[in-house]
Amino acid sequence: MLSRMRVLVLLCALLAAGCGGPKLVKDDQLPRLVLQPADLPRAFTRFDEGRQVRLDRVPGPRADPARFGREDGWKARFNRAGTAATRGPLVVESRVDLFGDAGGAKQDLAAYAGQFRRTASGARPVAVRGLGSEATALVQQRPGPPAARFVTVAWRDGNVTASVTANGFAAGLELADAVALARAQQRRIAAALGD
User: Fold this and answer.
1) Which H/E stretch holds residue 74?
2) Please, what's the b/e burial string for 148-183 (b: 16 or more CB within 10 A of its CB; e: otherwise)?
3) What residues form DSSP beta bridges with 97?
4) With bands split at pLDDT 50, 70 and 90, how would you rate the model's confidence at 13?
5) 3-class DSSP assignment, residue 6
6) Of 53, 59, 110, 189, whose CB has the highest number of CB atoms within 10 Å?
């Protein structure tokens, strides 16, 4: 009787360990975790897509491709024609970075926030609610006739960080435009994590 009880307890412990561990994104899922053509209006064309390479690095605290246990990254870029009167973005970049664990993703999002704080434009990062486990954004404006606006939304979920950068004319591009695209990308990440 006692040995049956031990077997039952051991079986329950094994089941709990198998089901209760953190859910992680795998490397082969990355191509599906960036924005896809179906996530944007038909006017957009994807002009670049694939694994992040040396030319995709951004100077600053996230420049090292091995930072915080980073294993890989993917990106997709889209554009459309427009004028100063066009509402919404004209160019969109979607990225996802894979880490060995959720701790690496958390450190990477902190590095995004640090990078945002160091921008020369004096813009400040803003919190974005209801996106992944935690999110931040930066809105920058460049003067000119007409002025241009760049909006980056970065977030983390599980063992990945992701970002959407949208740019267009200042009169037609808002933070909400980039957040809507980020939410479309987050749905892909949540599905990969089984949320």
Assistant:
1) strand 70-79
2) bbbbbbbbbbbbbbbbbbbbbbbebbbbebbbebbb
3) 73, 161
4) very low
5) helix
6) 189
DSSP secondary structure code for residue 23 in this structure: P
**How far lies 155's CA from each of 7, 43, 84, 105, 123, in Å?**
43, 26, 29, 9, 18
Cβ(71)–Cβ(27) below 8 Å: yes
Q: Is 145 exposed, middle or buried (0-12, 13-18, 19+ CB in 10 A)?
A: exposed
Per-residue model confidence as pLDDT tens digits over 34-73 = 999 999 999 999 999 999 999 999 888 999 999 999 999 9
Question: In the chain, where are the structural domains located?
Answer: 23-193
For the record, the structure tokens of 95 come out as 């990225």
Class of the 23-193 domain? Answer: alpha beta
